[in-house]
Amino acid sequence: MRRRRQRTGRIAAGLRRREFPGGKEFFVKRHEYHDSVLLGETVEALRPAEGGRIVDGTLGGGGHSEALLERGARVIGVDQDAEAIEYARERLAGWGDRFLAVRSNFAEVVPVLMGMGICAVDGVLLDLGVSSRQLDAAGRGFSFRQEGPLDMRMDARGSVTAADLVNEWGASELERIFREYGEEPHARRIAGAVVRARERGVLRTTLELAAVVEGVVPRTGRIHPATRVFQALRMAVNREMEVLENGLVNLMGLLKPGGRMAVITFHSLEDRMVKRYFSRITAETVDRPEWPEARRNPDWAAVRVTRKAVVAGVAETANNPRARSAKLRVVEKRREES
Questions:
Q1: pLDDT of 157-216, one tens digit each?
Q2: How many other C-beta atoms can be found within 10 angstroms of the C-beta atom of residue 337?
C-alpha cells in the first residue's frame, strides 16, 4: 500500500488526475494509442484483487489493462487487431507473466483460453467501438476526415472490406445497414446515391464515399453527414452486433460466481443490446399474462452492480470529448444457492 500511495501522491509530468467514485484518485499516463474512458469507474467496478484474473476483451492500447495490473490483477488482453496486440505487449512488458496478450475476437476467445487451461476468470471488461488510434490511421479506412482505402477491418485477416459492401451490395442491402446500424434517417437517399456513384466508377477511398454522402445530405452542424454511414459500414464489416451478442453470453459463462462483467458502449444500438441482456440475466422471475403466477427465470445468472448506466463526469469529457457518449454497465455473476 505504501508504494501505491507514493506513486499517487503527486502529479508528475505527463500524468493526468482522474477521480474514482468515493473520492479516490487515480493517475493515468497519456499514451498516444488511445485515451481509455471511464477508467477509474471501470477499475473500481471490477474490484481487481491481488492475483485475480481478468479478461480485457478489447485490449486496444492497454490502458484499462494497465490500470487493472496496477491494482494487483492478472490480465488476459484480447484483441483481433494485430497492431493493438503488438503495442500493448510492448507497453505492458514490464508486468511479466501477469499479462497475457491473445489475438482473437472476444466472442471466440473462450475456447482459446480453455485450451490454455483457463476455464474461469474473476472479471470481464468490454470497451466497445473503435479506438482513437484506429480512427487516426488513414490506412485503416475508418475515418471520413482523411484519404484512405475503404477497408474498416478490425482484423486484417478478415475477407470482407467496406469497399466490398459499397461496390457490391444492392441498394436495399445498403439502405438496411445504414438504417439499422447507423440509425441514418436518410438511408434510402444515401444508398441510392452510392449505387449511382459506383456506376461511374468503383468507390475506393474514404473521401470518395464521404463526398457521395455529402452530395445528398449537406452538412448542417458539427456532425459530418457521413458519420452514421461510416459507423454502419464498420459495424457490418466486423459483424459487431453479432460478435457482441455472442460475446456477452460466452464470456458470462467464463465468469466465476461473484465475478463481474463491465461493458462500455458508445452508441445506442450497443447499449440497448447490453441493457437487454443484463435485464434478462438479472431478473429472478419472469411472468406472462397467461400464467397464473410468475415463474423462476431460467436465465437468472447475475445481479446488477449499476442500476443505471454510469457516464463520464464533466472533467473527463472536457479532457476527452469521446467520453461524452460512453456508458458503463456492470453485473455480478450470481453465487449459487446452497
A1: 999 999 999 999 999 999 999 999 999 999 999 999 999 999 999 999 999 999 999 999
A2: 4
Q: Are residues 290 and 327 in the same domain?
A: yes
Residue 113 domain boundaries? 2-133+240-333
Judge whether 66 and 52 are in contact, CB under 8 Å: no
- For 141, the grid coordinates are 479506412
| Residues 6 or more apart whose Cβ sits within 8 Å of residue 111 | none
- Nearest residue to 183 via CA among 231, 253, 118, 127: 231
Q: Any alpha helices (H) in 47-140, and if so which ranges?
A: 63-70, 82-91, 109-115, 132-136
Q: What is the CATH number of the domain that holds 311?
A: 3.40.50.150
How many structural domains are present in the chain?
2
CA distances, 39 to each of 28, 36, 66, 118, 313 (Å): 9, 6, 10, 26, 12
More confident residue, 8 or 230: 230
The per-residue pLDDT for range 241-297, each reduced to its tens digit, is: 999 999 999 999 999 999 999 999 999 999 999 999 999 999 999 998 999 999 999
| CB atoms inside a 10 Å sphere around CB 245 | 16
The enclosing domain of 232 has a CATH number of 1.10.150.170
With CA atoms as reference, report the closest residue to 75 among 90, 95, 45, 91. Answer: 95
Other CB atoms within 10 Å distance of the CB of residue 71: 17
* Residue 155 backbone class (left: φ over 0; alpha: ψ -120 to 50; beta: rest): beta
Same domain, 162 and 110: no
Q: Using alpha carbons only, give the angle 40, 42, 44 rounded to the nearest 5 degrees.
A: 70
Alpha helices in 15-62 (DSSP H): 39-46
